Amino acid sequence: MSDHPESQQFEEWRRFWKSEQPEAARKAIKLPSLFQLWKSTLEQLSLPSKGSVLLELGAAAGSVSRIASQIPSLSANKMLAFDASIEALALLQNGESAVVGDIRRLPFATHCAKLVTSQFAVEYVDVASMLAALDCVAPGGYFVYVLHLKQGAIDIECGINRDLVQTFINSDFLSAANRLLCSALDNETDTDQRFKANAFKAALGNTESALLKAPECQGRDTLLRVYNAVADMIEAPAAFSRPEVVRWFDSTSAELASYVARMSQMQNAALSEDELSAFSDAAIARGFTILREGAVFDRSLSVRSVPIAFHIVGRRDQEAPE
Ligand SMILES: C[S@@+](CC[C@H](N)C(=O)[O-])C[C@H]1O[C@@H](n2cnc3c(N)ncnc32)[C@H](O)[C@@H]1O
After folding, report:
1. Can you give the residue ranges of every domain in the chain?
2. Ligand 1 — pocket residues by CB below 6 A?
3. CA distances to 9, 88, 125, 138, 147 from 2, in Å
4. pLDDT at 48
5. What is the CATH number of domain 6-152+270-316?
6. For the residues of 143-185, what is the DSSP string, one character each?
7. β-strand 76-83 against 288-296: which pairing, if any?
8. pTM of the model as a whole
């Protein structure tokens, strides 16, 4: 569960969905195991073929609705995609109706949806709000959640990414590069430029050895992009104006800080086994039958023995309890 201040939490996601990274995110969502899980689960649910509301929470670019729209028996239903990020919802492509807002304050009527889904989103809020979201499920309707799992593959990779990028931020690499470039662009004396070049060389050595030792991961790819961009500028400073350079360093530092915050959020969102069973028990107490729950594994990953997620499928009893 995240305890990040709300507005800041949303800001990291808005920044992410505005950036060029959604391509990478789309690939991640297409993990074969997740695609198969959603497809087979959605096909098995006994849902009306049209006229019902299917609500996806934290839908972003439509992780579940995209799959639902390919299932002929579901495609004539009304798909609502709900997310805090308008930038993410702008990427929807399957005729979903976009609704912007906070899962903690859902603007929907009780029992409005025959199906409520979430993939890696509803767990970003507190358990009480996660449970309150179930009020949207109509009698006889379902919820299907795919959730971040503590010590799951995503949790572990987020930790590696976060530590790697944080160490890079803490290093002197960016500030030394910035000082050297500005020194060259300001035509400072040779002595000053040499002094700054030496400081940069020292920082470069440390960064290169850290990158060489780093495991293959998204964090390393992110840092390699930054490293290459810096190398291009250092090689030909005259090709860049001073304001361009200053802007690039400011925005890159902000991007990296946001990346670390997002990795931390994802880790904070990951649920322990105890939290998952407490959620499942509370759903039962609210009038749901749990049809299926358990860890999700992905054979395409190098670490096949570590689950990537936890999934839970529940159906609301026909008679909602008083
Ligand atoms: C890890 S992404 C998952 C997105 C998508 N479901 C997927 O699988 O790719 C989490 C999403 O939840 C959204 N989100 C996080 N907290 C939220 C909240 N309190 N209310 C609404 N959306 C939220 C973010 O904007 C982001 O798009």
Report:
1. 6-152+270-316, 155-265
2. 13, 25, 29, 58-60, 63, 83-85, 88, 102-104, 119-121, 124-125
3. 9, 20, 6, 28, 14
4. 86
5. 3.40.50.150
6. EEEEE-BTTSHHHHHHHHHHHHHHHHHHSSHHHHHHHHHHHHH
7. unpaired
8. 0.90
Identify the segments of the chain with pLDDT beneath 70: 1-6, 20-30, 301-304, 320-322
Phi, psi (degrees; rounded to nearest 5) at 113:
-120, 145
pLDDT value of residue 31: 84
**pLDDT for 304:** 67
pLDDT for position 204: 96
CA distances from 275 to 93, 138, 150, 196 (A): 34, 25, 10, 52
Count of CB atoms situated within 10 Å of the CB of 154 = 21
Which residue type is seen at 185?
L
Per-residue pLDDT at 173: 97
Query: Given the structure tokens 């995209």, which residue do they identify?
Result: 66
Beta strands in the chain (DSSP E): 50-57, 76-83, 97-100, 113-119, 137-147, 288-296, 309-316
Work out the number of other CB atoms within 10 angstroms of the CB of residue 189.
9
Distance in Å, CA 2 to ligand 1 centroid: 12
Query: Can you give the pLDDT at residue 73?
Result: 87
Nearest partner of 218 among 251, 259, 171, judged by Cα: 259
Between the CA of 124 and the centroid of ligand 1 the distance, in Å, is: 7
Dist. CA 87–CA 61, nearest whole Å: 9
∠ CA(8), CA(11), CA(17), 5° rounding? Answer: 155
User: Tens of pLDDT along 127-148?
Assistant: 999 999 999 999 999 999 999 9
Q: Structure tokens of 160?
A: 């590696």
- The residues with which 314 forms a beta bridge, in sequence order, are 143, 290
CA of 14 to the centre of ligand 1 (A): 10
Residue with tokens 């109706």: 97
Among 33, 54, 55, 85, say which to mutate for ligand 1: greatest number of ligand atoms within 8 Å of CB: 85
